[in-house]
Write a structure and sequence with these properties.
The chain is mostly beta strands. It has no helices and 32 strands. The structure holds beta-D-fructofuranose. It catalyses: Hydrolysis of terminal non-reducing beta-D-fructofuranoside residues in beta-D-fructofuranosides.
Length: 467
């Protein structure tokens, strides 16, 4: 494939993790180890349309400036020849233990759902996050319990007391989703302990990329249900990411949900969220993309030799029965060119510097309506309790998403060259969308019935990450 000319690609991101070339999907194996943040991701280096995935690798000291590292895991062994699929990392003593799904498609005329596919759980031990000391299968496909299709994948491992637990996402024979639970004393021998949780026919046919986070005696289960039924303004994308708040019952090894599955993000491009704990907080990345969106909406960068990026890393907090997602404070360090406008109802700002910026709006009084026009043809509109994100042609098929709110007090908007993340009311909700504007117009027009205080900064990294 011809080398893409990066200098003229206005869609390459400034502060979001993306592949220089090729395809990226889920974040994997995130871990903070010996003073360095590591994040790995599903990666196909030489094909922007996807293929057998590797684990790409990026490191950082501050979660803002990242360095591209050599590919960490490549497919090709008999247990992962068709993809080093998603998985997680766990720090233990002086080592990092990674677990991933080795995807194998057998030769022949198979449907690869009920027949012809193996998904093996592979354990990788590393003493530095860069090199591999051991790599071996710990749960071969044939050891999975009956009642499931061939789709069981995406191990996430954690410690509780003296034992280790692994959760895996699965698709049952009746096309409902479930999260399987395995237990181990030594990280190599795993016993199936039943299902942490099972879904019903409205909750999708397959649950991918499960993750569990405990907040005191409460717990949050995150997962990506493929095909979950749309509900009012929620779950409108081809596949969605959701979460349940509840608690872990460690005696019965069940997750006890307290309410319904909630959508994690209201935008068009958000999937397979993945968390880690850096010692004092829970941080989440997600794939800012989704599969099966075409023909409804597309990612035009594929013609420029690359496709997809990750979301910003986000801080997770639990408040009542709601998971809050907030931008990391570290991103304040790359703010430049500050602009502040106090107490204003109208602004037309037609000449925004650069295409990567942050824009905060603090409402002095509750508005009954406002519009905010951004980029080329993107409009955020609020009217009588409903916040609507509308994209024009630069959304490449993305049109409209809505969210009902009790009130609106604050918006924090992160624009990068081809993405938008809108944090509502200090993390109560987020809209994440890819958007692909042309090179010229970059406006901001605000028109509200009540006044707001507005802050704007260019976000700039000394080195352009995507080059
Ligand atoms: C989610 C997913 C995972 C799988 C990976 C393959 O996007 O389908 O279930 O491990 O992507 O790239």
């Amino acid at each position: 494939m011809a080398e893409a000319n990066h200098d003229f690609d206005q869609w390459r991101q400034a502060y979001h993790l993306m592949p220089k070339r090729g395809w990226l999907n889920d974040p994997n194996g995130a871990v903070y180890f010996k003073g360095t943040y590591h994040v790995y991701h599903q990666y196909v280096p030489d094909n922007p349309k996807g293929g057998a995935t590797h684990w790409g690798h990026k490191t950082s000291k501050d979660l803002v400036h990242f360095k591209e590292e050599p590919v960490f895991l490549s497919p090709g062994k008999c247990f992962d020849k068709d993809g080093v699929y998603s998985g997680g990392a766990m720090k233990l003593g002086d080592q990092i233990h990674f677990f991933y799904t080795g995807n194998v498609k057998k030769e022949g005329d198979y449907d690869y759902l009920y027949n012809g596919r193996d998904q093996n759980v592979v354990h990788v031990v590393s003493s530095d996050g860069y090199s591999i000391d051991q790599r071996h299968v710990v749960i071969p496909h044939e050891d999975f319990p009956p009642g499931f299709t061939n789709h069981i994948r995406d191990p996430k491992v954690f410690q509780h007391g003296n034992l280790f637990y692994m959760i895996l996402g699965g698709r049952k024979l009746d096309n409902t989703g479930a999260i399987l639970l395995f237990e181990s004393e030594d990280l190599d021998h795993w016993d199936y302990k039943g299902n942490l949780l099972e879904g019903n026919e409205d909750q999708g046919y397959m649950w991918e990329a499960p993750d569990l986070v405990e907040f005191g005696d409460q717990a949050v289960l995150l997962f990506s249900p493929q095909g979950i039924r749309a509900n009012h303004n929620s779950f409108l994308n081809p596949h969605s990411a959701g979460y349940l708040v509840g608690r872990m019952d460690w005696d019965s090894l069940q997750f006890i949900p307290k309410g319904p599955i909630k959508e994690l993000d209201q935008g068009f491009d958000f999937y397979a969220p993945h968390t880690f704990d850096d010692g004092h907080r829970t941080i989440m990345w997600a794939w800012m993309g989704v599969s099966d969106s075409s023909p409804e909406y597309i990612y035009p960068t594929v013609n420029r030799g690359w496709q997809h990026c990750l979301t910003m890393p986000r801080l997770l907090e639990l408040k009542g029965d709601r998971l809050l997602q907030k931008p990391l404070q570290e991103y304040e360090n790359i703010r430049t060119n500050r602009l502040e406008i106090q107490n204003t109802k109208k602004i037309a700002y037609g000449d925004i510097v650069g295409h990567s910026y942050e824009f905060d709006l603090d409402f002095v009084d509750q508005p009954s309506h406002f519009t905010l026009d951004l980029l080329e043809d993107t409009r955020l509109a609020y009217k009588e309790g409903t916040l609507t994100l509308n994209h024009g042609p630069s959304g490449y098929g993305r049109r409209s998403r809505q969210l009902d709110l009790d009130s609106i007090s604050h918006l924090q908007i992160f624009v990068d060259h081809s993405s938008l993340e809108i944090f509502v009311n200090h993390g109560e909700a987020v809209f994440s969308s890819r958007v692909f504007p042309g090179t010229k117009e970059n406006k901001m027009v605000f028109d509200s019935d009540t006044a707001a205080n507005l802050l704007y900064w260019v976000l700039e990294l000394s080195e352009w990450w995507g080059k």
